[in-house]
Amino acid sequence: MDNTLYTFLALADAVIITDANHRILAVNQMYETITGYSSDTIIGKKAGILRTPYTPQETFISLKEALASGLAWSGVLTNYKRNHELWHSSITITPFLIEGTMYFVGVFRELEQLERGQYLDEHRVEQIQGSLLKVLAISSEIRDPGIESHLASVQQLTGLLVTRHNERIGIDLDVEAQSHIAHSSILHDIGKSAIPEGILYKPGPLADYERTIIEMHARIGVDIVDKIFRELDDGLVEIELSTAKNIILHHHEKWDGTGYPHRLQGEAIPLEARIVSIVDVFDALISKRPYKEKWSTDRAIDYLVEQKGKHFDSDIVDSFLSLYQDGMIMS
Ligand SMILES: [Fe+2]
Ligand SMILES: [Fe+2]
């Protein structure tokens, strides 16, 4: 690398220098501190490795166009730090042609240092997403007075169970994926909004045709979220969409293949749906419903154990039991 470029590394802002193909040639101390990458781990890599799906496509297009015509470019990028946290920054990239070789010098200014109100931090985005999903879920089942507490318990227990199962079995889910599952679990019965009240809350036994109609809530739910997310057209929420759809469609599948709607068996059932099904059944058992009394926690736990390998994934039931033994499952 040309010596004159090293001067830029002395700036107080994070600085990155790449070759014409965006391969990293040097970064400065501030860059290392902010991103968590040390020079020797990142030099030689493509600058795009930090990329997240959150930076709009148009940003990259205008960036490419400017640099291709030898112009400097400024814009906002959302990158990943090494620990996978998001890093929102305003960056200026300037091309330098030195002795026939092209270099790009990028100088970052962290958005955290700018005035508040110019961007949404990650925590706030997560909060908004959470409330949005909650309002959505509650309003679809507004006719059921007990639903709010059921949904809150399902979400809370799903969060605990995902984390515990991940620790116990090592399924390698990152924190983000875990929170997507917990967030999305609240939507599991969103399809019930399309089921007639007389059938849904019927106190007595159901006729076959009534059962068939109720079972439609899994498929209908997927259509509903598809429609909502198409309206939203928002990449931030979209990431949770496939997790949510798996939960909505498959939360009534059973490990032995006797569930619905697709009679999936074993690990063919998405993990998130296997987790939510245990939590959903457990909370339903320990709650009073029009057609049943409330069960004691011990009795509900016995039921989960009895259904290992039948209704439920045995390993996940074991994770649930370990939470119970630690006193983390209250009725
Ligand atoms: Fe359901
Ligand atoms: Fe439920």
Protein architecture, described:
The structure is a single chain. It is elongated, with a radius of gyration of 25 Å. By secondary structure, it is of the alpha+beta class. 47% of the residues lie in helices and 12% in strands. Helix 5 packs across helix 13 and helix 10 packs across helix 11. It has 2 domains: 3-113, PAS domain (Beta-Lactamase); 122-325, Hypothetical protein af1432 (Orthogonal Bundle), CATH 1.10.3210.10. The longest helix is centred in the middle third of the chain and has 23 residues, at 147-169. It has helices at 29-35, 39-42, 57-68, 122-140, 147-169, 175-185, 197-200, 208-215, 217-232, 235-250, 271-285, 297-306, 314-325; strands at residues 14-19, 24-27, 73-80, 86-98, 101-110. The protein binds fe (ii) ion (2 copies). One fe (ii) ion is lined by residues 150, 154, 188-189, 280.
End-to-end span in angstroms? 65 Å
Weakly predicted, low-confidence segments: none
Domains, number: 2
Q: Please, what is the CATH homologous superfamily of the largest domain?
A: Hypothetical protein af1432
Helix content: 40-55%
- Using the coordinates above, name the CATH class of the largest domain: Mainly Alpha
* Distinct ligands: fe (ii) ion
Largest sheet: 5 strands, antiparallel
Q: Which percent range describes the beta-strand content? A: 5-15%
Based on Cα principal axes, name the global outline: elongated
Give the ordered list of helices and strands.
EEHHHEEEHHHHHHHHHH
Structural class based on helices, strands and sheet pairing: alpha+beta
* Spatial arrangement of strands, main beta sheet: 2-1-5-4-3
- Overall CATH architecture of the largest domain: Orthogonal Bundle
Tally of DSSP β-strands: 5
Radius of gyration: 25 Å
Task: Give the CATH topology of the largest domain.
Answer: Hypothetical protein af1432
Mean pLDDT: 87
GO biological process, one term: regulation of DNA-templated transcription
InterPro entries: Cyclic_di-GMP/3'3'-cGAMP_PDE, HD/PDEase_dom, HD_GYP_dom, PAS, PAS-like_dom_sf, PAS_fold
Pfam families: HD_5, PAS
